[in-house]
Amino acid sequence: EVQLVESGGGLVQPGGSLRLSCAASGFTLSDHYMDWVRQAPGKGLEWVGRTGDKATGYTTAYAASVKGRFTISRDDSKNSLYLQMNSLKTEDTAVYYCARRNRVTTKEFDYWGQGTLVTVSS
Amino acid sequence: EIVLTQSPDFQSVTPKEKVTITCRASQSIGSQLHWYQQKPDQSPKLLIKYASQSFSGVPSRFSGSGSGTDFTLTINSLEAEDAATYYCHQSSSLPITFGQGTRLEIK
After folding, report:
1. Which chain A residue has its CA at the smallest distance from B85's CA?
2. Which of A75, A81, B40, B71 has its CA 20 to 30 A from that of B22?
3. Could you report the per-residue pLDDT of A80-95, keeping only the tens digit for each?
């Protein structure tokens, strides 16, 4: 069974840092593109960024709103995906989801984690 | 950036009714359009991929159509458990974008 479990969320002050983790099980992480998507309270879905799979050299891409502040990394030996968030702003407050892309087509998000809440506030 | 505009934003419907949600892209995206269902306090779940292909395990009352810039999600014979917010998502080009969501309320 495919499972994605996020952790690491919490309360952080503006300008602070936080590292989120996503533990994957039930599949081979290195075979898949993986993304982070966030959802501010009461709002819609916003793409944060993605890392490619092993075949594409784990290339990364980011939304303009987080580029230069957030970094996605992965440790396939630990079946884990990470989101390092620096210089946090109040508008980064959201539930953060990790999402898996289909192995073959690499386009649609076929499984999502349950999310972890990040609150940026003084 | 490709903008996806869904309509309506909100709809109140009765069980067994047929529901149609549309998603319009600001430029042609071929069939690179996917639909998700998000129930309250849950993560999104994939319903339809590539505009019209049903994801494994999704009830047959959900279907999708369209290509280019105009897409439709149809729910036939609505059930109470379909109360949720529905989002479209384009994978044609970066940045990935989502529609603003359509919330369905069951009367």
Report:
1. A44
2. B40
3. 999 999 999 999 999 9
Give dist(CA A51, CA A60) in Å, integer: 4
The C-alpha atoms of residue B48 and residue A109 are separated, in whole angstroms, by: 11
For chain A, give the number of residues. Answer: 122
Cβ burial, residue B14 (10 Å; 0-12/13-18/19+): exposed
Q: Is B99 exposed, middle or buried (0-12, 13-18, 19+ CB in 10 A)?
A: buried
In A35-74, the residues whose Cβ lies within 8 Å of chain B are 35, 44-47, 50, 61, 63-64
pLDDT digits (tens, 9 = 90+) for B53-80: 999 999 999 999 999 999 999 999 999 9
